[in-house]
Amino acid sequence: MRGRAVIATILLIPLVGCSATTTKQTEPTPTTAPAAVGNLCERVQPKLTGTWTIGPPEPRVYAPLSDACLLTDTAQKAHQIQIALSATPVTDAQSAALRQSDAASVAGWYAAKVIDGGVGPGSWALNPAAAAPWLVVRSGGRLIRLRVVNDGAGTLDELRSIARTITELPGELPSASAMVTRPECSRGTAAAERMLGSRTVLRRDALVDGHLTCRWGTATRSAAVRPSSVLDFNQIKDGASAGWARRVNVGAEGWQQSNGILLFRTKNGAYLEVTGTPGSVLRTASVLALAQAIAPAYR
Questions:
Q1: Residues 88 and 158 both lie in one domain
Q2: Which of 47, 63, 148, 201 could bridge to 222 as Cys pair (CB 3.0-4.6 Å)?
Q3: Counting beta carbons within 10 angstroms of the beta carbon of residue 97, is it exposed (0 to 12), middle (13 to 18) or buried (19 or more)?
């Protein structure tokens, strides 16, 4: 009996091995979504009706700091759409605070108000009755701002259509570095943080056509020093006679509006604007301190 048991066991071994071989299945290879390539304009352009070119955006100060691009309709050059993607995500509370800031920024405009955007939860828009419309949507926690650059050259419904197309694109949103810095801007960092009331977590410094721009930001606030024009400078200067601007000691000549925005001229004839968003960060003393700190970076 003992010998038969041993033989039976030996005979079973090849049978078990054969069974495992014949029933083995090949596991499917997992697939991944294609990586996001290019900025939002480059990615959405092929999906849009008509023919659009991609170019540099009109400078804007957003919070949180964003990377922007510009779409121009080849059939109507004035028809331009700016698309800006926040460098980092924002929380529900931060998004709500930014919406309140936008609402405050248009308070008093004739027939203009911030309304629900109509593109998913948390979106909002400017009713374009008295201004070029803009739309803010949230995707992956990040804010996407779409704005008609010129009054009358686009509609809110158009922005909604483009926004829906963006949110349906395959792959994730383009990644972005939180800190893009230039050493020339470092002399203004401490003053910018005092202006914003906290340490900066976002930076967007750039040198474009020889002109230096410095930007500092938190999730809901931003400060910027950027090139301006002699026309804007003279407009603020002329405002002194009306009582809404004053002379300040910065650069070769500086003037500051009563709302805090400041423009100054350098000895070499360059014009710079010091500003921020929302309006609550534009305390005249802190804006002036930032201007005085950064002025040596401009010759």
A1: yes
A2: 63
A3: middle
Give percent above pLDDT 70 in the chain.
Answer: 86
Q: What are phi and psi of 187, to 5 degrees?
A: -65, -15
Low-confidence ranges of the chain (pLDDT < 50): 1-35
How many folded domains does the chain comprise? 2
Residue 240: what pLDDT?
94
Examine the domain organization and report whether 161 and 199 are in the same domain. Answer: no
2 residue type, one letter: R
pLDDT tens-place string over residues 200-236: 999 999 998 889 999 999 999 999 999 999 999 999 9
Return the axis-axis angle of helices 284-294 and 189-196, rounded to nearest 10°. 170
Contact (CB, 8 A) for 184 and 206: no
Dist. CA 288–CA 254, nearest whole Å: 9
The helix (run of H) or strand (run of E) holding residue 222 is strand 222-227
Task: Please check whether residue 192 lies inside any domain of the structure.
Answer: yes
Q: What is the pLDDT of residue 105?
A: 86
The range of the structural domain enclosing residue 109 comes to: 40-168
Q: Which of 111, 115, 110 is nearest to 136 (CA)?
A: 115
DSSP 30: P
